Sequence to fold (390 residues):
Amino acid sequence: MQQRIYLDANATTPVLPEVVAAMLPYFTVGSGNPSSAHQAGQRTRAAVERARNAVAKLLKASTKEIVFTSGGTEGDNLALMGVMQPWLHAGEPAHLITTQIEHHAVLYAAEALERRGVRVTYLAPNREGVIDPASLEDALTPQTKLISVMLANNETGAVQPVGKLARIAKSFNTEIVFHTDAVQAAGKLPLDLSGEFKNVDLLTISGHKMYAPQGTGVLFVRSGLHLTPLQYGGPQERQRRAGTENVPGIVALGRAAELAQVWLQADNNAAALGALRDRLEEGLLSAIPGTSVNGTTSHRAPNTTNLRFEGVDAESLLIALDMQGIAASFGAACQSGATEPSHVLVAMGLTPGEASGSLRLSLSRLTSSEEIDLALAIIPQVIARLRSLI
Fold:
């Protein structure tokens, strides 16, 4: 059987065995509705609250600030829509600042708000895919109500200076709400909402980017911040997100948060993952002429590289690699069916042709050195074959 090499962890991570084991009991008859007063319901409620505590510890936040959601998209939408809704209802001028390199969960929500009368400014990144804090300073106005800047980019891995950006916002006006999409950062980078990110009011994470199942996530909501709910029906999540909780998914996310905290606290784990990524990146750069890295190489998520191969169409490359057992991507998984080039790479200054020849390789904590060796043997051969067909 052909060995499969999974290099698309930014699209989704495998679910760890420990996470599966934690969630399985909550599919059985012994589990009740966590809003029920009987013993089965209260046992389930206790499991939800243990998971909430685990996520709060990972983020260095209060359990009262953790809102369970269905994932990153809902969390981003709840953040943007929940903050801006009162201004829309009041008919008052409102200004939102975000960036051109956000995930579409933020970009499409911003566009929807724009259609309803909100003025939106989209900050451009530099060539390395990083937002210059000076551009935020220039964009701020007395009408600015909300700022949303992702922490680690899902395509390049570039880490944005979110702590500094949030400080700039609060220095301008303490009433400005600051949101960060930390979906690609959670479990890979330390997230301290009581320290470095103490000026961040809202933060999104997604379970399936950190070794839990798809369909669960969290929105951190800073204490004292009013957030208009998007759905109604019950008092769950302190009346911020109605609906019976996805108990197995929440328990799984809580266990994944515990494992992430252990992984992050070890001295060499992130460095070892970054070294494995670097070995893959450097090996491909040296073995394949006309190859370059898209974005910064100095401050990025330790598992991600985005490479441009001259004379190669990424879609053809993906298909050829898949036939050789390697899973990769050329952008966000939710946009993989699109024929347009990556909006992130184009915003960074690449031409559509350059963006269309780029490939994202993202490792997981389970990626082995042997898999990297095999990828370094296969990818150059595949690219040489594709170039010979031109």
In short: The longest strand covers residues 304-309. The domain at 5-14+267-388 is CATH 3.90.1150.10 (Aspartate Aminotransferase, domain 1). The mean pLDDT is 95. The chain has two domains: 5-14+267-388, 17-264.
